[in-house]
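step=encode ok
step=design start
structure_in=
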């Protein structure tokens, strides 16, 4: 990371200067170059930071989707990427990762202006994480082995991995660049071609990443980007009969649509990551209540609460509830909500006014049902034109309230009382989601028992949101299926082929 951040500014003025000189990419990227939408249509990409129009971005229709898929199909079938030596793919992807790092300032500014996240996090997590992810999968290129089955002397039976073909990737607006890298890494290293549809709220870094990949040596047509909205562009990609696999991250509602698109078209492969309502459990024997409270606060207020795995439900033992909640509230009071381009900012803007209104409606609904707002609960910095929310803690929440059952996707913590591990497990699992969970206890037996019974793809013990690209990420239940990150992700972008050779004839 140090090589990436050495020349980056550490002042508000420095980041403002970079932002002022950054060009906003606005066209689709098809077959190796930026192109406008065939119809000439565009949509306004507005900054979460201040509501300003950053760019009028190409709005891709059926002609554009067909063109991108055709470019991807041609590139796949002629073997310019799918059949090259794995070490060549490794070389190109490592060059791609280097270019991400070398363009860190530009990419971080694009991400921050687009989605409102603090610039320090855009640099460290989004740019740094994306580069690290591409590097991780690049290094796997020449290390993926097939199998030889034990079939006897006269039979040779092999099992080999083959790329699925054309992959349609649809990514969300909360971590646009990072989650894009989670899809591109395993898809590209295994030889697939990709058509990427970024969220309409955050198209900028996707287009720029495609340019950098081409600059790194990725052949034309292997990575294509089609901006547009979900009902038009996303739907057309999902239904396209020449797309072999869909990789989607977003809401459960839209995830269901992509399942139906696959069924209506060509039964294409689908992997889904569809959010969560993750329980953050603090038991009476938590080893350090201050450390736990800090983790609870950052687990929900980080990235403005716009994280699929945010610990949005605090399930705290009644015997320590008052102390834990008081410590969380105290930390929330110190958080700096401000301009995302200011390195001092800890909580930036939520994505847009629609999402801000949705967050406020959940808070209003909870208070109407008898819950109590201990801190926050309101919009901030409205004079800027941006969409800012105060870090919010809502107490006296019951499991039946919408704020405890639905994904708010904002800096809002719902506090629920529990009596001991068994009730905590019951309440924690009483949800349609199963992405992540955490438990704080000093008892190793309790930790093991709860980890095994929590229905979640990731369970943290005495920490929260610890992660590594080498570990799989994904959910149980309606949080989806399939995994991002780790070598397990490669399973979703390859097919197994059995070859049987009979030497007895």
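sequence_out=
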């Amino acid at each position: 990371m140090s090589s990436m951040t050495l020349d980056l500014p550490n002042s508000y003025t420095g980041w403002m200067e970079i932002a002022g000189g950054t060009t906003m990419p606005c066209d689709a990227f098809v077959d190796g170059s930026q192109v406008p939408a065939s119809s000439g249509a565009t949509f306004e990409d507005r900054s979460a930071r201040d509501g300003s129009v950053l760019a009028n971005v190409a709005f891709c229709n059926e002609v554009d989707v067909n063109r991108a898929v055709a470019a991807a199909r041609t590139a796949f079938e002629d073997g310019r990427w799918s059949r090259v030596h794995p070490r060549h793919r490794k070389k190109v992807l490592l060059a791609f990762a280097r270019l991400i790092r070398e363009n860190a300032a530009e990419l971080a500014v694009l991400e921050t202006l687009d989605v409102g996240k603090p610039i320090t996090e855009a640099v460290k997590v989004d740019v740094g994480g994306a580069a690290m992810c591409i590097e991780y999968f690049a290094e796997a290129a020449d290390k993926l082995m097939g199998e030889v089955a034990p079939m006897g002397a006269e039979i040779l039976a092999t099992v080999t991995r083959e790329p699925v073909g054309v992959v349609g990737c649809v990514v969300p607006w909360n971590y646009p660049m990072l989650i894009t890298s989670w899809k591109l890494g395993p898809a590209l290293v295994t030889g697939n071609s990709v058509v990427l549809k970024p969220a309409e709220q955050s198209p900028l870094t996707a287009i720029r990443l495609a340019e950098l990949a081409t600059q790194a040596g990725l052949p034309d047509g292997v990575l294509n980007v089609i901006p547009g909205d979900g009902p038009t562009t996303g739907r057309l990609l999902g239904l396209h009969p020449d797309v072999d696999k869909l990789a989607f991250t977003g809401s459960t509602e839209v995830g269901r649509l992509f399942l139906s698109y696959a069924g209506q078209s060509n039964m294409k492969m689908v992997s889904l990551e569809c959010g969560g309502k993750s329980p953050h459990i603090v038991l009476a024997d938590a080893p350090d209540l201050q450390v736990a409270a800090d983790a609870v606060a950052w687990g929900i207020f980080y990235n403005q609460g716009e994280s699929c795995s945010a610990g949005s439900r605090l399930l705290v033992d009644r015997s320590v509830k008052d102390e834990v909640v008081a410590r969380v509230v105290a930390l929330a009071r110190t958080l700096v909500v401000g301009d995302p381009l200011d390195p001092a900012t800890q909580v930036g803007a939520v994505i847009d006014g629609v999402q801000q209104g949705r967050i406020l409606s959940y808070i209003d609904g909870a208070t109407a049902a008898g819950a109590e707002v201990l801190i926050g609960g309101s919009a901030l910095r409205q004079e800027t034109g941006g969409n800012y929310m105060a870090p919010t803690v809502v107490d006296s929440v019951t499991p039946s309230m919408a704020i405890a059952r639905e994904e708010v996707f904002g800096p809002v913590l719902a506090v629920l009382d529990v009596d001991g591990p068994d009730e905590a497990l019951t309440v924690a699992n009483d949800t349609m989601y199963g992405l992540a969970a955490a438990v704080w206890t000093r008892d190793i037996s309790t930790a093991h028992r709860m980890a095994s019974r929590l229905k979640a793809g990731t369970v943290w013990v005495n920490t929260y949101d610890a992660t590594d690209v080498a570990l799989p990420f994904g959910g149980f239940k309606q949080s989806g299926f399939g995994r991002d990150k780790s070598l397990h992700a490669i399973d979703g972008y390859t097919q197994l082929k059995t070859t049987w050779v009979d030497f007895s004839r």
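step=design ok
step=annotate ok -> The chain has 16 helices and 22 strands.
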